[in-house]
Amino acid sequence: MTNTLATTLQPTLVHTLRMPIRWGDMDAMGHVNNTVYFRYIEQARISWFDEIACTPDPVGEGPVIVNAHCSFLKQLKYPGEIEISTFVGPPGRSSFEMFHQIRMVGADGNPGTLHAEGGAKIVWVNFPAEKSVPLPPAICKLLPPGKLLPGK
């Protein structure tokens, strides 16, 4: 893991999702388009949110992302199956960091090879007020103990 959160705070694995690479995920260069990696990460994030009953409520509160990043390490190509591992960092007042690793699974010649890693900062918001609010205790219990670095 190369991002700052991952190397300084030892994030906790919370979810793993497998999904196929679809033919339509590829671009004219014959590999998965860079924008699709963000969709893979989004699906992993939403799958974990669904699993922990953390679905955003447009008339109440819920999670939003305020930034996202991805490092593309090795091309993904159709056909194939990927596994997205989702990690979380410790809670702040109203936010926490998520980190993802995308690996090939199956018979691609090198199963388990890291193809991309990325993440996002998640902020808990009151949607009608359009303001951040403290993370709910139930969410904080799912996050590893520790403190975020200044500015996180």
UniProtKB/TrEMBL annotation:
Gene3D superfamilies: Hotdog Thioesterase (3.10.129.10)
Pfam families (alphabetical): 4HBT_2
Family matches, as SUPFAM superfamilies: Thioesterase/thiol ester dehydrase-isomerase
Domain of life: Bacteria
Annotated organism of origin: Massilia violaceinigra
Entry protein name: Acyl-CoA thioesterase
